[in-house]
């Protein structure tokens, strides 16, 4: 009997789909209505009193006649009919109308597209979206949402602009042989980056990292930003279903870059406020062995150093321990060093490249991510670098770089900018000073409001402890506070949960998207939330 | 007994790996040699006369002592020793030397990276590589290899250059509000493209495609070239292990864009010279049903129209049939239309978008690829477009576009260029005339050598039948002829096998990489090969 009941229900969705289709054709909407008149009593027969015979034969016959009827109606709308739009293409041969006998169901997309097409559930992206709908502007939209959720550095745009105005034309088109220059930008160029830019970048990285480590341009693959650099590295280092360890709190973008298309899992290694969120090798060991027990293949560890979102810097000792750990487990290290030049504290940044220079270690497991979005504040230019000591990885990454290559005019422009040593020196110094100035003022003001920040030495953000303001002390309380900041204070900040922080109540606040002069305004808005929290507690 | 034989062999590879590592450290290479002295007699014991006890206990004990010995030697190389380089970082805590007790085997990369890091076996890439090692230059390297294997259009670079010289600065930096302009290029911009560029591109596509079809900027996702556009679409439309149908001969790049990272298979649908390599729906049906029988899920069909490498154009009737086929099978259509504006024949190009306008079909299965590398000859600028009628696909593609986004200065530049209607009109016309002129002369000259080309109306190449010159009539013969062109004539062309052509002896020859004046030189080089083939036959 189950068969009897199941079988006849099959044909019913089909005409309904046909109807849907026909409804969009205004003139044939009446046919769908008449179709419904047929189907409703039919359902009664099928689901209730019919038997095997009635339940299977009658609907099939009716379905056939219905299709025949709809097909006839449809063929009245041939493209050459006067009702169609004047630009329509005529069709010389008769239409086979395959569509009416085949499946007209909605075409399927990939599983990945189904997931990605849904609205983001991470508050990191949700916050960015909300800002884009109502962005603050001191004159045009003074009540808009202030963006403190994106580490965009706007403190030195005046320097970049001044340089561009002066040098743009010469740097893109060349000042010498005209024919040479157009051939250097319009036709295809090496996808993994122009050699000139690699050399200039190696110099810039050397300079930014304190002049104590050299970079070899032949170890570089250039990409359109650090984001594809991380993705390409992920594709190179691990297979779908493998995993990377990642200390928390971590940059929300890693989930996207590593999980989405490479299909690699991220295993959080929780760091604590009591350690100022510094990495702990024992926690790493535990996470590794637990993953192994679950049958997960761990293929690497991703660190961001200087840390995003905390802003602290790894000590050389910690880097040595990490190398030992990676060598012991025979896994890779991906070191995201995009904030290397944006230091302001007394602690000096040490690149993992420098530690490698001093140790007899297998360098082939170490890969550095760098880019110009942070330290040179040209995120819109999309310039990223994979720096690897592994020839196999470099060879594979070079091939993948054609999916993420930088436009040649931009490469020429950036090469020229980086090669202007006087400008670069001035830029690095001014940028550090301005970051320090804004950061000190901002963190001081927060302290006065009773909000303490984690100790930090780099980055464009502070990692603020607002656990005293949340109620309940849980992720729920954190999200409610985030919502309050968004709606009451109209500022977008990144909640710790978006960074997989295990302790609730921490927030990343970027301060380089505003000017020094705008700090009081932001602090005033934060004060409102603090006071409302205190009064309700 | 099998267990006895297997078990003791395990420890042996370990010390060998240790040796490898130590050999790179010059001072400890003697340790590896002494290690070998221990291992060789040990192997005799284990594999032959030992038993369970000797075979498992002795090697384990020896292995332990060997590791202990190597560890001691290794610890002599502590980083603070005077032999290390002067910039070395000191290590404050004692080194744990985890590495010497763990696996020191070479770190694994992903399967994909292993495959991609190997040299290309496709003659398409091999040819491009060879040119890059010895590129022809009329003055500097007149005996170098002439590039006819890449569809780069160099015929109108003078127009592009003239425009750039005049407009570069104003288009990137803006002529008005200075503060507005730096904010429009340096900070993060929408990853899927600036709206201004989408509008300009929609206009350009409308113009290039004969003015008979409108494009909606909101259906666009911009990418850094058509290559990532195809890859992103692949990720959106099918899952790993699914397949797309693709008529042959096809552009060798599809294999890379669809197979590498999305992991989608390409099922060739063979077209024949007797049909001038036009698509045949019966062949499509057969390929589809055969794939289904093998349990492969076909999720779409990729066409290039105008065809690369043949240069023919699909008739509206064929497009109608394709739509019927796709609707019948409920699959997607990806139409690569990057050569839409590079037409020279009497046949008019009709975009699939135009056919959709005139038919009551489900547009959500149709996706168009476009870009400016071919029709505007700015391949180095990396500007590509996904044009889709499917909201889910657009939403997902927008998110993926952050891995392939175009730099903002380039977007501003191109927006300005495309908005210069007088320039664009002049460019399109001049470009078509020049392509036609070079193509006619080139094909005529080939005909005089006895080489006929397929009928074509678009593109930057001809599809030449050299089957009369190959011996044996097979892929082997074709490859030998390719090698002869490379070494005797010193020209790089693309053999049909690289395009999955089922008939041997066809070659794609790009003619827009040379100037009109260089045609006699190229033809002379080809003549050499033709004559040598004829004399040897």
Can you walk through the features of this model?
Chains A, B: Keywords: Aminotransferase, Ethylene biosynthesis, Fruit ripening, Membrane, Pyridoxal phosphate, S-adenosyl-L-methionine, Transferase, Transmembrane, Transmembrane helix. Chains A, B: Homodimer. Chain A has 537 residues and is α/β, with parallel strands linked by helices. Chain A folds into three domains: 2-80, no CATH class; 118-155 and 425-536, Aspartate Aminotransferase, domain 1 (Alpha-Beta Complex), CATH 3.90.1150.10; 178-423, Aspartate Aminotransferase, domain 2 (3-Layer(aba) Sandwich), CATH 3.40.640.10. Helices cover 47% and strands 11% of the residues of chain A. The first copy, chain A, is built from 20 helices and 13 strands. A seven-stranded mixed sheet of chain A has the order 2-8-7-6-5-3-4, sandwiched between helices. A four-stranded antiparallel sheet of chain A has the order 9-10-13-12. In chain A, a hairpin with a 7-residue loop joins strand 9 and strand 10. In chain A, helix 10 (195-208) crosses helix 17, helix 11 packs across helix 12 and helix 19 crosses helix 20 (519-536). The longest helix of chain A is centred in the C-terminal third of the chain and has 28 residues, at 421-448. The first copy, chain A, is globular. Chain A starts with a helix and ends with a helix. In chain A, 48% of the residues are buried. Residues 1-53, 68-86 and 94-103 of chain A have low confidence and may be disordered. At the A-B interface, helix 5, helix 6, helix 8, helix 9 and helix 11 of A face helix 5, helix 6, helix 8, helix 9 and helix 11 of B.
């Amino acid at each position: 009997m189950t068969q009897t009941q199941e079988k006849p229900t099959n044909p019913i969705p089909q005409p309904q789909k046909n109807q849907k289709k026909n409804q969009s054709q205004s003139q044939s909407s009446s046919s769908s209505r008449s179709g419904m008149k047929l189907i409703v009593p039919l359902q009664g027969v099928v689901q209730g009193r019919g038997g095997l015979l009635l339940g299977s034969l009658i609907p099939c016959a009716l379905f056939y006649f219905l299709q025949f009827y709809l097909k006839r109606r449809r063929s009245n709308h041939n493209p050459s009919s006067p009702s169609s739009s004047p630009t329509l293409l005529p069709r010389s041969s008769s239409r086979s109308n395959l569509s009416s006998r085949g499946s007209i169901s909605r075409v399927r997309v990939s599983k990945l597209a189904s997931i990605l097409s849904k609205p983001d559930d991470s508050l990191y992206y949700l916050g960015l979206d909300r800002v884009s709908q109502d962005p603050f502007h001191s004159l045009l939209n003074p009540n808009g949402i202030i963006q403190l959720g994106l580490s965009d550095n706007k403190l030195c745009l005046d320097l970049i602009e001044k340089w561009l105005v002066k040098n743009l034309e010469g740097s893109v088109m060349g000042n010498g042989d005209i024919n040479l220059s157009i051939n250097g930008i319009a036709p295809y160029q090496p996808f993994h980056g122009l050699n000139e830019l690699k050399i200039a970048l190696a110099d810039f990285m050397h300079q930014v990292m304190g002049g104590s480590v050299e970079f070899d341009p032949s170890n570089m693959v250039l990409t359109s930003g650090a984001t594809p650099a991380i993705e390409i590295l992920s594709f190179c280092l691990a297979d779908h279903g493998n995993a990377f360890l990642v200390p928390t709190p971590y940059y929300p973008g890693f989930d996207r870059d590593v999980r989405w298309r490479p299909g690699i899992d991220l295993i959080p290694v929780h760091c604590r406020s009591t350690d100022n969120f510094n990495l702990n090798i024992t926690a790493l060991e535990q996470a590794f062995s637990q993953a192994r027990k679950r049958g997960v293949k761990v293929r690497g560890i991703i660190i961001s150093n200087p840390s995003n979102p905390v802003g602290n810097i790894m000590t050389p000792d910690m880097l040595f321990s990490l190398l030992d750990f990676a060598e012991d487990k025979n896994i890779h290290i991906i070191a995201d060093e995009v904030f290397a030049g944006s230091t302001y504290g007394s602690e000096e940044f040490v690149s993992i490249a420098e530690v490698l220079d001093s140790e007899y270690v297998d360098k082939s497991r170490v890969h550095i991510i760098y880019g110009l979005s942070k330290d040179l504040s040209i995120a819109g230019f999309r310039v990223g670098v994979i720096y690897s000591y592994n020839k196999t990885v470099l060879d594979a990454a070079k091939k993948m770089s054609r999916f993420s290559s930088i436009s040649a005019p931009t490469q020429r422009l950036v090469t020229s900018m980086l090669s202007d040593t006087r400008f670069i020196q001035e830029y690095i110094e001014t940028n550090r000073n301005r970051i320090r100035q804004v950061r000190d003022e901002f963190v001081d003001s927060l302290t006065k409001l009773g909000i303490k920040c984690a100790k930090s030495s780099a980055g464009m953000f502070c990692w603020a402890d607002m656990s005293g303001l949340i109620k309940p002390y849980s992720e729920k309380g954190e999200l409610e506070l985030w919502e309050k900041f968004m709606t009451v204070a109209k500022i977008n900040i990144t909640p710790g949960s978006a960074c997989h922080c295990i302790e609730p109540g921490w927030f990343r606040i970027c301060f380089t998207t505003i000017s020094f002069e705008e700090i009081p305004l932001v602090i005033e808005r934060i004060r409102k939330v603090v006071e409302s929290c205190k009064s309700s507690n």
